[in-house]
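Practice problem: predict the structure.
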Amino acid sequence: MITVGILTISDSSYRGEREDLSGPLIREMVVERLGAKVELEAVVPDEFDIIKGTLMVWSDEVGLDLILTTGGTGFGPRDVTPEATRVVIEREAPGLAEAMRAKGLEI
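Answer:
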């Protein structure tokens, strides 16, 4: 069974000012459509070192098969999810991002 972590990056959700809606939706889809087991879920602020550190622990120490991130991808100065992720990953899979964007346009 695939083990999954879902990391929501959002200052406002981290501070409790806004409910995290995307994390639970992703959890539902992962369980229903992939039959995967969600091992870890967290909401962290838009902080480069926290995002990077969480991704490293989840991949290297916990050994999750798949880590999905949501949020922190806008153009604001604090939106650093892509940059923090690139430091951790060994290989990019741009086709996955393109497929997600294409599917999102259908909504």
